[in-house]
Amino acid sequence: MDEANEVRKIWTDLGLPGIVDVHTHFMPKNVMDKVWQYFDSQGPLIGREWPITYRADEAKRVATLREFGIRKFTSLVYPHKPNMAAWLNQWARGFAKDTPDCLATATFYPEPEARGYVADAIAAGTQVFKAHIQVGNYEPNDSLLDNVWGLIEDAGVPVVIHCGSGPAPGDFTGPEPIARLLSRYPRLALIVAHMGMPEYSAFLDLAERNDNVRLDTTMAFTPFVEEMMPFPKTELSRLKALGEHILFGSDFPNIPYGYAEAVHHLIDLPGVDDAWRRNVLHDNAAKLFGLS
């Protein structure tokens, strides 16, 4: 069975109309090329061989997701310096317009202009923001973001936020800054990327305490990650109980294994049932993003 049919069989057997993947990357070509060069060089945050399984041009990557039956996906862009977010948002807006199965995506960075371009992004119909605390190397409670978080909270737009300390800790990663952020903006809809690895337990705590905190499964539970940062078996019961707070994410195309493999390792977790699988692969995200 080829991979597309393998993925389709998974969601078809569960009676789903497809999969919603909240963690995929589409970027301007020059930015994506630099990201791939970083992975190829085994940069300091990686420190190991990391082949890009779905290295292809943009059209091919979109076609691949459609062949898998991915109903909706994202174009998670993120800046690593000032004066970058606004033009990334402009690119992502055009990409979403040309790619109707992509959730309209935007980003931000702590800079004086952030409030203006975030307000513009919300007005233009942005459905999800991306924040990357590790790569951006900023404190999420930076005062330059005060108005930004407030705007996003009031608009109810979810934020996929890479804030865990995997694959390597940053100056501002970990659960503590996010707990402080939520104490200030308790209605923020946060999707913690990668299950918050390796601080899985602490981010599960946040999801238990905050109805609007969710976690995405990106790369978690795969052998590639389990070798370095295994998910605690003692937390599997909590993972199941929090099934309505868990969303599927893949990190496509930047994964060092196959898409079907990632899905299988998720749905084969001990103790989960088909209702949990349906929620995580589709229904939770469909409800969050208002998909009919």
UniProtKB/TrEMBL annotation:
Keywords: Lyase. Pfam families: Amidohydro_2. Residues 20-291 form the Amidohydrolase-related domain. SUPFAM superfamilies: Metallo-dependent hydrolases. It comes from the Bacteria. InterPro entries: ACMSD (IPR032465), Amidohydro-rel (IPR006680), Metal_Hydrolase (IPR032466). This is Amidohydrolase. The lineage of its organism: Bacteria, Bacillati, Actinomycetota, Actinomycetes, Mycobacteriales.
